[in-house]
């Protein structure tokens, strides 16, 4: 594949702009989530009661807010290792952003359909979308490694750690998604725990201070 | 807790990116508010009359616009003191952004339910959300101080002043919230005054020009 | 008034962040406009016919897009003259952003009410919002001049030219608004022409290349 | 035309800000698309079934996400060649952003009207909007060349290649639009292929590493 218009020249600046664009999309997706939460008391119902009924919506809002927020942190950490971008990386990143931007839809479905077959369908779509995001993080990392787009200061041990971490992510989200076959709320809980482990747990040490 | 991937290396850049992401979320939340204001004349009603009826919505819009705008200013002033970020700070900031992004929902409820028990419920949620934001500002400051994440140029007097300021904020918003038990509009007025005092009133002097 | 937390220290950086936040709000407000345009054919109506009926909505969309786009350009040009910000300037800028963010509401009303008394009411609100923006540009400029917040390279001739320009803007938008008393579409046309004159017409020359 | 307020002074900074504003608008437009996708099962319909019915909406979402994402990449690549901006360029760029921001409307119509005369009308509007974007890219390039706004390092061969590329774009999108007269889905497929060719295919090499 031809190295194209996009990838020529001041590549570090390109990575910065790709990150800025991604930050914008993530910030918007996370903030749009609340637009889906609707609290409208029915005839004769008190607002306090209606808020109680809206709890599934508010829980789903909080869960997706956490997921996108932590994906942002991961995305930022990932792009700090990038020396250069190419068109394949651009497309992989665009797919990742597409799945994140898609999340408000399954979030709304999860809030509206909490039980039975529809509850399972909604959770499969929700967990599936998060799993697709985890797959795209792998794809981005794979492209960075294979096409030599990483900063030279990134050493082999760090690469191996990050690679393992991302593969675990895919399997973790896949298992969390399948838990909805037992009970839908298990998927919500498991994906939230996974996100917290990713941000609070041990993580690969950067090789150098210059990273 | 392990110092992780996120917190390694060029930390000042991390603080800048965290602030940029936060700015994005705040800018979006403040701009989305207007989407909740709906002016739809009923059969035979004039538009001028319908606009008169929409005044509670427009007042609520203006009040929340002011709150988010001044929170942005405070957030920016706060992050100018940051030398480095860690995962706890990241999560605390994410929680703050979550409460701010949540604000369009109570804003709409406050506009739709202006009297009686529902008016109180709506104002409790509105004031409670603002109080939660004030609590998170405290949590962020607490983490900055305890984990040694502040710039070295920040002196003890400045720290004490900021700490007191944030604690006063929590109590101020809590009292303002409880005023809705007397009359809902008192909460709207008191929170607006609090915000104006925070931006126009005396404030801790930065210790150095380099701050 | 005490020079506060906000205004201390690296002021040029503050101006840059205030501009970045404003850019975010303006970019979001301009992009949200399309959400108000709804094309829903009635029973038995063709889509082509429904699109024809939606022309007032599309014209209003285009007009507001132009207004916000050119306000962005003006805002950027204005902030290039800023050396330092203070709390009053911050509040004045927040008010300006509040009026711009409000614009989607009158834009929708103008599209829905095109004739008669309601058409006039809608246009008064639309033109009034744009006039309020012009007033806030004056307020910002006034604060910049009186509080000595301008870059030192800004000379007296430039100041005078900008001041006159902004005062003309207020009167121009005021007259354009009142034209709706003759016919609503005159306001839409006149405000669009005003915006084009502001961006394409002669303008004060910056005093120095370093501006 | 007078060289105005906007264009004086530190022009490279102006290009950067114009690009940042454009990035914001593009990031918002791409993220708003999902708000138009509505999955609401009818009485007695399962969610899985309703999701099946929503496939045209989801395909349209994915197609427009791809278009805006690749337009962002092109816009960024284009603005890397800019030395300076003027008011005409500003207006041309604003028109481009206006057409991109308009895209959520035809995207929704394409999802709702998939067959017959209405399907053709929707696709004509969708393809026509994309063609208008391609025309505006030409207009921006034309202004950059004619008004001497390009970086001096951009050589003649590069200019010729880019010029040809943009003209091909217009004709490509025009032909893709007209394909809807055979079958609406052909337009969706052809415009998606065009976008992929633009990002993955051969492209003009930048003349220098400093580009």
From TrEMBL, chains A, B, C, D:
It is a multi-pass membrane protein. One of its GO terms (molecular function) is potassium channel activity. It catalyses: K(+)(in) = K(+)(out). The keyword Membrane applies. Its main location: membrane. It comes from the Bacteria. GO terms for cellular component: membrane. InterPro entries: TMEM175-like. It is found in: Membrane. The keyword ATP-binding does not apply. The chain crosses the membrane at residues 20-39, 51-73, 85-103, 123-144, 165-198. Keywords: Ion channel, Ion transport, Membrane, Potassium, Potassium channel, Potassium transport, Transmembrane, Transmembrane helix, Transport. Belongs to the TMEM175 family. This is Putative membrane protein. It comes from Labedaea rhizosphaerae.
């Amino acid at each position: 594949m031809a190295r194209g218009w996009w990838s020529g020249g001041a590549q570090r600046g390109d990575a910065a702009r790709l990150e800025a664009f991604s930050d914008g999309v993530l910030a918007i997706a996370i903030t749009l989530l609340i637009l889906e939460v609707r609290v409208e008391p029915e005839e004769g119902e008190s607002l306090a009661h209606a808020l109680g009924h809206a709890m599934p919506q508010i829980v789903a809002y909080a869960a997706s807010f956490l997921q996108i927020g932590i994906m942002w942190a991961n995305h930022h950490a990932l792009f700090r290792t990038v020396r250069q971008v190419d068109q394949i990386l651009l497309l992989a990143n665009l797919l990742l952003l597409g799945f994140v931007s898609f999340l408000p839809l399954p979030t709304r479905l999860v809030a509206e359909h909490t039980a039975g077959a529809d509850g399972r369908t909604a959770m499969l779509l929700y967990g599936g979308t998060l799993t697709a995001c985890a797959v795209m993080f792998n794809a981005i990392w794979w492209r960075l490694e294979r096409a030599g787009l990483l900063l030279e200061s990134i050493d082999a041990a760090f690469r191996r750690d990050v690679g393992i971490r991302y593969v675990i992510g895919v399997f973790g989200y896949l298992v969390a998604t399948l838990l909805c076959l037992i009970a839908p709320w298990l998927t919500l809980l498991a994906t939230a725990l996974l996100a917290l482990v990713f941000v609070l747990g041990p993580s690969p040490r950067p090789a150098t201070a210059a990273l």
